[in-house]
Design goal:
This protein has three helices and four strands. It is an alpha+beta fold and 92 residues long. The protein has a single domain, classed as Vaccinia Virus protein VP39 (Rossmann fold). The longest helix has 11 residues. It starts with 11 loop residues before the first strand and ends with a strand.
């Protein structure tokens, strides 16, 4: 049985979404939930695999544009020959 625990608002200094954003149906909702639990000035790190199709349809950029406005992109890099991206955001 899956149990879901709701965290307090503005509770975490850092939040990591690792290797799953591409598999989540409601990406905007997921990013807003991560934003909700992140303290002001906190760090959100997102990393995921990129496929050839993802590059063709510019999926990475489209996914990351779903973020809340008060999350500022502070760093973005491709790793392992462009097969994985890592994006770092700061909550304003």
């Amino acid at each position: 049985m899956l149990k879901i625990y709701r965290s307090k608002t503005m509770f975490f200094d850092r939040v990591l979404i690792g290797g799953c954003l591409g598999h989540i149906s409601f990406k905007r909702k997921a990013l807003f939930e991560e934003y909700r639990v992140l303290k002001s000035g906190g760090l959100l790190v997102v990393y995921d695999q990129i496929t050839f199709i993802d590059r063709l349809i510019n999926k990475v950029v489209r996914n990351l544009m779903l973020k809340p406005r008060k999350l500022k992109l502070t760093d973005f890099n491709y790793l392992f020959g462009g097969h994985i991206y890592i994006a770092k955001f700061t909550k304003l």
